[in-house]
Amino acid sequence: MPKLSKRFIDAAKPEAKRRFLWDDNLKGFGLLVLPSGRKSFVLQYRTLAGRSRRLTLGQYGALTPSEAKHMAADALAKIWKGEDPLAARHALRAAPTINDLMDRYLSDHVLVHNAKSTQAGVKSAIKSVIKPHLGTVKLSDISRRDIAELHAKLSKTPRQANRVLAVLSKAFNLAEVWGWRPEQSNPVRLIKRYRENERDRFLSDVELVRLGKTLDEAERIGLP
Length: 224
Fold this sequence. Notes:
Layout: H1 6-11, E1 19-22, E2 29-33, E3 39-46, E4 52-59, H2 65-80, H3 85-94, H4 98-113, H5 116-134, H6 144-153, H7 158-177, H8 205-221
């Protein structure tokens, strides 16, 4: 068997079918050569349960032979400890994102428990801020720093910034209930809300009529 050096890999020619070239020093470490000419480093291994796995480490060119070999050695060390790198990779890809959390939060909580007016505000915060900024991030990767940076970006609109924090806080609490995050891991905790300016509110026509009737009664019969 060859040693997977740069010279050897450069000289490897594609054939009609894909083929594997295995390294003579590190067992299971190899090179996959496709008919198209694309070359990728792979690691063939067995789990402690005896299952055969093939882990793609990366494409030749993006990885040097030395880098790929170090990655293979690190993966083998984990395998000897009982881990399964390929299963871990699949689990990471399947792990829920912020988009997944927001969708479930809306369907399972907001649309079930919140009033229509509240629903509108939550939907707006999710659609205009949370999903565009954090949507594709894995739920397990979100930290307090990520939330604090998003909150800071909204500092010129403190009311919106605080609403986003409130939505995220509730959603992360539910993520713990659903088993999507460890308990007591809410990244919104300890982030200070902005002070909001008071807004003037004017009475509607209906409220003005009610006020007028109340004042008339007060003049005629006195306040209760």
